[in-house]
Here is the input.
Amino acid sequence: MSQPPLLLIQLPVQSGFERWADVAADVATIVIALALIAAGAVAIYGALKVRGMIKRIRGDFDPAIRNLTAASEQAKAITVTLRRNVDELSGTVTQTNDKVRRATEAAEARLGELNAVLGVVQREAEDLFVRTASAVRGVQAGSGALRAIARRRGDEAYDGWLDDLLDDDAMDAEDDVPQIHVTRTRRTGRDIFDE
Here is the structure.
């Protein structure tokens, strides 16, 4: 069997100073590595401390955050309630406005009807006045005619009882009686608005 060739590495010969420099460099590398490990440990320790402080702060502020959240929800509920109340009030105002408008229109219609009724009453009153004036005129003429007949006949039984009954001088047919002229006006129920 044949043996594999042997590998020979030739190392340079180092002087004493070079050997101390290599050892110092190796020690410095180890110190730097240990410093970096220590710095990493300090950083991890600091991060854990900060994490603990954040947990404590969160614990301290958690009730305040819950209270703020509850207050925000209550404010939202109040806003919704106020909006609903304002909408209801607006609806009520609109309904009331419509009712007032309808009541005003109904009052105008009733006023027109009342005006028409008053016009009819006025025409009836005028007609009644004309009829009454005509009846009075007829009574005057009749009483004058009866007196004239009684005087012409020379009725001894006539004792002036008709004159006593109709004592008013205006009833005497021989007096100048002023003539009453009444003119009728035809008005409709809406004429009052046209004036």
Q: What stands out?
A: The chain has three helices and no strands.
